[in-house]
Amino acid sequence: MTNDPYAASARAYDLFSAAARPGQSAALAAVLARLQPPAGPILDIGAGSGALSADVLDALPDARVVALEPSPAMRSLMLSRVAARPDWHRRITVRPEDFFSATLPARLGGALAIGVLGHFDPGERAAVLAELAARLPRDGVALLDLQHPERPTRVEPYEFTAVTVGDLTYRGIAEARPVDTELMRWRMTYLSLEGERVLTEETVEFDYRHPAPAVVAMEAASVGLLLTGLRDTFWVAERA
């Protein structure tokens, strides 16, 4: 086990997350026109390997990005992505802090919070929404996701991805159990295989919250944000 729950997946994160990328890209594409770069930078909370930040920088030439990624392993992936694009260097800041430790921009042109909201307890979640509401411009939006299941339940082991590169296959297996009415304990196993032979196998456990959309909608409304379903697990929080 490790203190960084993303250290294991970071070994081949973009492969392990490949199945989720099309949905994320489609959700971002649906809100790109609603981001407002002149109002301020786009805040990417829990930016991971930087794939969505990269999409923003490529799609919106006038956009700047502030990316928050406290995981050293994940941040190294993001900085490697940024290093390969010198044209981005003046447009993106990759901060090593979490949301509550970082100095946030006073004004934002939009925000992304994908795969991250479940890491906050209810009080923290309400504070995150309030901070976004205070910084977004009128009609500004934040793209977020509320991952399945909508309510804690037992999830039997299942393969969530399998990608073959050359002679090796990278597999991810997930399972979970409920802890309380919102919290789940996830167990993730990451493998690399040559045929049936396991070359590497790493397992990590972490807690993740699954608040009901109606609960998050009420929390958002209390700070002046309108939560609207976009597609699948993706939602838009708009400052009315």
CATH topology of the largest domain: Rossmann fold
- Tally of helical segments: 6
Name the shape in a single word: globular
Indicate the percent of residues in helices: 10-25%
Estimated structural class? alpha/beta
Any idea what the CATH superfamily of the largest domain is called? Vaccinia Virus protein VP39
Q: How would you state the average pLDDT, rounded?
A: 96
Listing every helix as H and every strand as E from the N terminus to the C terminus, the arrangement reads HHEHEHEEHEEEEEHEE
CATH structural class of the largest domain: Alpha Beta
Number of strands: 11
Distance between the termini: 44 Å
- How much β-strand is present in the residues? 25-35%
Largest sheet data: 7 strands, mixed
Radius of gyration: 18 Å
How many separate domains? 2
Strand order of the largest sheet: 3-2-1-4-5-11-10
CATH architecture of the largest domain: 3-Layer(aba) Sandwich
Low-confidence sequence ranges: none
Could you please describe the fold and organization of this structure?
There is one protein chain. This protein is α/β, with parallel strands linked by helices and 240 residues long. It folds into 2 domains: 9-148 and 211-239, Vaccinia Virus protein VP39 (Rossmann fold, 3-Layer(aba) Sandwich), CATH 3.40.50.150; 155-209, Single Sheet (S-adenosyl-L-methionine-dependent methyltransferases). The chain contains 6 helices and 11 strands. The strands form 2 sheets. It has a 7-stranded mixed β-sheet. Helix 4 (72-83) links the parallel strand 2 (65-68) and strand 3. It is globular. The model has no long low-confidence stretch (mean pLDDT 96).
